Amino acid sequence: MNEKALHETIAALRDRLVAARGPHGHWEGRLSSSALSTATAVFALAGVDLARHRLLVDRGLAWLCENQNADGGWGDTVDSPSNLSTTMLCYSALAIPGGPPACLRCVEKTELWLLNEVGSLAPRSLAAAVEGQYGKDRTFSVPILTMCALAGRLGKGRDAWRRVRPLPFELAVLPPRLFKWLRLPVVSYALPALIAIGQVRYEYRRPANPFTRAVRWLSRARTLRVLTSIQPDNGGFLEAAPLTSFVVMSLAACGRRDHAVVARGVEFLAGSIREDGSWPIDTNLATWGTTLSIGALAAGGLDASLSPSERQRLADWLLSCQYRHVHPYTQAAPGGWAWTNLAGAVPDADDTAGTLVALHELFRTGSAVPISSISAGIEWLLGLQNADGGIPTFCRGWTRLPFDKSAADITAHAVAAMGLWLDAIPQSLKGRTETALGKALAYLETAQRQDGAWVPLWFGNQAVANRENPVYGTSRAVKHLASCASGIGPMGPIGPICERGVRWLLSAQNDDGGWGGSACVASSIEETALAVEALAAACSLCVDPSPVAQSARRGADWLIAHTHHGSYLPASPIGLYFASLWYSEELYPILFALAALSRVSRMPSFPS
Fold first, then answer.
1. Each residue of 198-238: pLDDT tens digit?
2. Using CA atoms, how far apart are residues 124 and 160, in angstroms rounded to an integer?
3. Who has the most CB within 10 Å: 40, 288, 358, 412?
4. What's the pTM?
């Protein structure tokens, strides 16, 4: 390895990451523009008042036309292959009257793609194809079909609504605690869509059962009050254009264009458009990006990048983002962190773990550690732990929906976070945490595939079977476990499962020295960096560290060459948002590469 090139690349990446901070002192990053977000946003604005929003609508439609794939469809990012869900939403947006001239040609190309993909443009065929994408989970299939029905893509008048399954929006009047007791298949993040889409479906096609019809009639006003109460002040549900747009278009279509929820939703959408006429999938991942950036800088030593005052400012900002009260939207307990500091977010396990790890780095220098905040974060994670020992994303699971299920990479992240603070928290909490860590490690052993890999929930690779990303999942699990392996105490043997993960990563390395989402998948900066960091972190735990170190160095050479010594960092769509929507984030290649190369630069020398 060329040590000079390694250190030059690290310096370039560090400078680039530090420069990417906003004037507020933390990182916001930049999510990729989304055809799905853009299509839903323009349709919602047009449905409320097309004349008033004509300029925004036309800018969005023009962006869709400019970024249509050559085959006639759209993917979730401009670097994604065409998929049915996004293409159907764009097809519906193109039904807005009076759009740019290019829209007519776009519609022709889209219909050819749909004919090839579905076999027919008949409403029954289109609806069946969309439902087939999601199976029993209607969280996203019903919103898509609702927009298609409103656009006339599923037929005319009331007949179109036969293709849209009704939603039991009356459930929103129940106390949230009953959802779990009754084992209802309702996730909190989908509640706004449940209410708004349920109401528009009721408006256009009412149930035949007189009792159901009466219950839904009587619950309309009350559920709208629930919707109003959970809408953030800035109008954006989950900070997401698609969810906000589905709510706005549905309420507007059932005669509530003047409702306060619609007005705030429109304000959010109008304020979220980008200069090029597009919308991102979410406003930003500020908390997530900031904690990852702190970790990347810490891999080479925070003193080299951030002054004591800057570190304190970051710590203060992260602490200010902690939820101190029950969340009004999800009813989540106090103590967690969300992916962003903005009003529309909800606390989740990955960001809570990430913040606890980042705070551990920031408070290494002897500042007064806010133990009450740390303890509250750990308490929050403990309250989330499932019966199988794993950690889910948002809430302890009572259904089979993905966000209620334990996730291996999130569980490993929580293990690392709690393990780092084990000796600092009160003794009563320490005992409970040690018990939880033992259960979490047992879950990780069970969740590990026979070949040694782990599969993540929120990250994927478009070229891998089932769109999974075992390189991400395994790399994150190995890195997190290695970070606390030296102080495991009663937590159990981390080494064996960690080494099995390492062996899988070695087997998945490409001949060029890099990694893709799995074996024999084209290498990317993000996935190569993740694997290199994990191997460098874990090599000293392995029985034979030499081949592990060699593999990490080969990967580092790949990163140096393919980033042009830290000057060329294209982002790949590896992130998955709600409903498995793909995104890329401009910070990912920078911070992942910096963390990996910094870790390699500090890796002990092992004999060949």
1. 999 999 999 999 999 999 999 999 999 999 999 999 999 99
2. 9
3. 412
4. 0.94
